[in-house]
Every structure is written in C-alpha cells, then in structure tokens.
Design a protein that fits this description.
mainly alpha; two-stranded antiparallel ribbon; 10 helices; 6 strands
Length: about 425
Amino acid sequence: MRFLPSHLPVALTRVTMGYAALWLATVLVWRGGNWLSPWVIGGVLAAAVPISIAWIRWLRSPRWQGPVTVAAVASAIYPFWWQLAVFLAAVAGLAEIESSLQAVGLGGLFTLGLGWVVWGLENASRRIELARINETLRRGLPLAVSAAEHADEAPRGERIWNPLDPAAWYYGRQGRKLKQSTLALVSYAALFWMAVALVGQLGGCSEEYELPAGGGQQKTVAQTVKIQKVIRKKFIVNPFSSIKFEVPPIDEVKLQLEEATAHQYTIGYGEGDGAGFAGGTKAGKVRLIRLEYDGGDWDLNFGIGGDMNMLLEYGILTRQKVAEQTESRRVAQLANFPPDKSPPVVFITGQGNFSLSNNDVKVLREYLIDKHGMVFASSGSRHFHNQFLAAMNRVLPDVRPVPIPLDDQIHRVPFAVPF
C-alpha cells in the first residue's frame, strides 16, 4: 500500500479496493447476461452502503481531511450508490425511472471525471511553471516578475512534447492555456465514451434467450356479434302540459361485441401439451426486449403501462410463462446471443430520429439473416417511419418494403383485425 497517501486508513482502503473489484465484476455480469441471482447482485451492490458510511465517519473525524480528500471520497462513493439506485428501480419494475437514472447517472459520472481532469491539469501545469520560474531565478534573472512572465515559455532550443506543460510546441504562442484545456476536454470525452462502449461490449459476452417448451396450434380467438334489443319505455304525454322534453326514438338497437370463447390462442409448433415452442425448455420464458438506439426516444411508453401490459396480456392469452419485467438492449448487444438462443423478435418504437452506426447495421443484419430474428417496429410518426425504412435499406439493401395484406396471418391471429 505504499502508493497510497499516508493519511488514508489502511484497513478500510484495502477492504474498499477488494470490494471495488468484486463490484465491477458483478456490474459487468449484471449488465451483460444477468445470469446471476438478483439476490446475489443486490447483496453485492448493497454492500456499498456500510463501506460508504465507514468512509463518511472517517471524514467526520476530529482530524480535518481537507476539501480535496472529501471531494475524492465523495466521487469514489458516487458510482456505487448510482448503480444501487438503478438496480433497485429495475427490481421494482420502474423501467422509466431506471432508464432515467442510468442516463442521468452516466452524465454525472462524466461531469465528475471532467472536474478531476481539470483539477489535475491545472495542478500539473502550475507545478511545471513554478519549477521553470525557480530554475530561471536560479540562473540569475533579477526579478521574479520577469521569471513569471516567461513561466509558460520553453527554454531556447528545447522542444517540449509533454501535454501537461503549457509551453509544449503544438500549443503555439497564443492562447496556450485555452488550447491545452480544449485538448484535455476532447481527449477525456473521447476516452470516456470509448470506455463506455467497451464496457457495453464486454458486459454481454454470452447471453441466452430460452423459450418455454410445449406445442399447440395457432388459433383465432372467436368473436361473435350479439344484437341486443333495448325495449323502449312507454310514456303518456299530455300535449297541453308546460313540461317539454325530447321523446326518445321508438326502437333502439345496440350492437354489442362480446368474446365468445376465451384463452383459445396457443402458439408453437412443438410437440407436447400446452402452449410453447419447439426446442424450448422448462425454464424458458417469453421476454419482451426493446431495442435502444441513438438520436431519438427509444423508451417511449417503456415499462409499466406499455411493454409490461403487452407482456402480461400475452401471458393471459397463451398461458405461457412470461418474464417478470420487460428489458432493453443496445443493437450491438444482439451480437451477444448465440444463433440457437437468440430472441425470436425484438421491439422498437419512437417518434423522433432513428439512426444506426455501421456496426449496428452489421449486427442487425446478422440477427435478421443468420439468427432468423425479427424486428417489430411501431412507428409513432411519419418522420420515424421514413428514417426506419432508410435504416432498413442499409441493413437489407436487397429487400424492399411491402404492405401486409389484411388476410395475412398476422392480421388474423390471435384477433381478427377488421380493417
């Protein structure tokens, strides 16, 4: 522990570093395939609470630790509490809150990191400048002011490459501080988002989609139209009365659509009793996975009230086992599913912009062709409709969109769509 500052508590620091490694591994597994028990994930994430409290109590000890130490401890605690809040929202089924916490928390993590980059850059630059001033004075420059004026200038004939030094040759001679800060911001932002993308790729090395086993045939839920005649009440009206009211029509006939048979819809082509799929397993469940994408509102009506209602209704109609909550994945994460254990269908919707990166196009093409998947898109606007078709032209350049006729099976099962 020699590399740690001497004022830090050694035992607590060792426990924290060990826990941080376990926490990182758990978060990667959770974000990747979620094959760990929720109790294990929750237990590991919740362990951050007592460790954080121990650090807070240490900061409140009689020995003042200084603002930098306080800021460092608070920054270190932040990601642990952030992921714990996201996990609790996910367990509670609050998908919209989970998505918001994930996005806002990531922005907060970026801001915290940027603050430390600025602080570190400023301190490093100042130390280099002070060292240059002291060296200039040591050589006999009479005035400290003159030395300070030349603190950001390199010695004659020397070409400096260190980006922490404002006198680096690639900063030029004007606005060196501004150029240095701009380079630090751009470099940090690029490295941060590359790390986020890398974690997203590594976080799901292996994920499987298990369908429920069973058999059955697809049927249309029968519906009948019953005509219900409403008997009109008879009124005796005095034509000379001062009371005036509108007499209802003599006959009122109301059409009432009732479901004649319930729960007849089963899906699947496997053999056996009950609804299910060939190749499914007893542990399999039908999951509703929504695709995340850049540039728009992919989470429109996501979670309770939208996707969850659809998943529950599917379970009622088919009597199949369904997942306890809805899910979302980045397009790139579809590559984590093996060909024989991929989602049979993924859902996508929105009203705003829709865009795919070149890697997303490649992954989506592989999902549709090699893994025999399906993308079900619900357009919330004409703008989204046009952008989705343009994206699909990139994914499947040899395929052209066609309207689905009304007598197609998708319009007849489980309910017949009349128009």
